[in-house]
């Protein structure tokens, strides 16, 4: 436990009075105080007069010059003189404010409100004659702060050893966390007290295709809860991670403190900087209700508006895919025998012995096109269409794909013409196997091929260790790569959905064609090792805070022994919960992931997936508790139609649904999809009940959710 003496408190108060600069949120509920203590910058944060974040240090450590040795330098005491974390005097402060409304190209609401008060403090380091700016923005839902480095005589080029921004909390809060890793966020969430993280940490990770774990650190966004009579929810994250590595949070479990830990490269460097430049924002969202945290758009507000001159090609898309059957092992990505030693440009793939299970073949793709078109979908993803899958993984092979040459049984021209004749656009798949250098080399030709055949969206993938070798999925070089690809895709009017990439931190405001990403444990893990029943109730408070995820829901055949007798794998939800995910999770690129044959058996339930929207004019978080349940209502873009989704964890749950979000005086027809009375995610997942009911804004309905179950409701206005 923390120990604070009265003398220390009085000493701190004396310095605060002499040095503090105060900033209040527009509604006055938040107050941030900045102060200097013997040349070291600190900040704290209060909510409704109560301390939420205690005095917390700010600053960065630097390497002594821009030329660092291989495998990093070992820090020496004398190197501290190069750091930007002490020896400061405050030389200037500027204040600003903004209250604007902006419209996301794709979003959970038609309008986002960006309202904040700002304080920028200039600090001068006398011994080195260098200056930095610490900028704070205080919103009605929390605080964002970052470092800014003006161009100056003694600070033009520098290399960051580490950023030491701290967030010092007041108590041992409950935390929903996953282990920190430079290369993956595909882990199960843990629920413990902050003080319990070190003991749980060694057991909290399983194997991954690319993995560099950071001991005793957790990933952001991090969701926290102060329990008691007056609960308080805190979300720690970052915004606008551009030309900078993604960060993690080192845990001081005894003092309930977190410190920024940046992703390193092979030399141990965290960032190569040239002034003028800015860091990402560190964000602290605070609210007395969990629903208000989910509803926050502060992370998006801290990103810059787009510079794109044309966004007309960016649109929500509901799609299907030749994908799940490969994930479960029914089909394969590769055309030839596994582990064939192939070389692009040399191997004649027409002479390879087919493995007989290649999924991306003409006959199968046409069957998917037919079903998608008959049911009103806009797109079809096809994975494994291009040569190179025989030895794509685990070989550290740079020239692994060319992104333009199809397998012999995939007629790209014929299939595109067939798809277009049915009103379907094919969605391109570009798996890089982590070879980012190769993808950049081929990106122009790949996007030109997409333009030629009318593809307007691409799913990129980064499975495995990164090339350039020694880089990580979240290091500065790779962050820049992801957005170079987004900018290149914009030149060709192409939307991007990235997998195994960095988690988004609101950049969809700046790069609106980067419409979705994976960057978390999605539905595919139901076939790899399973997702816990509470997983989907945590993600909206963590991964989803900074942008949409391609979660790929809609699995109706949840038991895999249906395909492989005796197989113990299963999707740990009911069918009704799968429907609800289309509402509780924001996905403008929205997939119906199961096989057509499984949907054909449940066309009455499939109707909800056909009806549900993918982009929204309004969103209401009706009720939520991380790790327990989420109930969300959304109004479809440009219509009067509403959709409601509710999900629960491993506990069955009753919920009284209040329809007061509907317009008063109007009548609606609700189609309700709920768990059957005998439903159970283990024993009877496909039991569901569908009925219609006329409702108004005064209506109330008691909903019952079984273990890992849920409900979905489609609401249409009745025209008198």
Mean pLDDT figure:
95
Q: Using DSSP, what is the number of strands?
A: 37
Structural class assignment: alpha+beta
Specify the helix fraction band: 10-25%
Main beta-sheet strand count, sense and barrel state: 10 strands, antiparallel
Q: Descriptors for this entry?
A:
720 residues, alpha+beta, ten-stranded antiparallel beta sheet, nine-stranded antiparallel beta sheet, 14 helices, 17% helix, disordered N terminus
Task: Summarize the entry for a quick read.
With 720 residues, the protein is α+β, with helices and mostly antiparallel strands. The protein is built from 14 helices and 37 strands.
What would you say this structure looks like, in words?
The chain is an alpha+beta fold. It is built from 14 helices and 37 strands. Helix 8 runs parallel beside helix 9 (476-491). It is globular, with a radius of gyration of 26 Å.
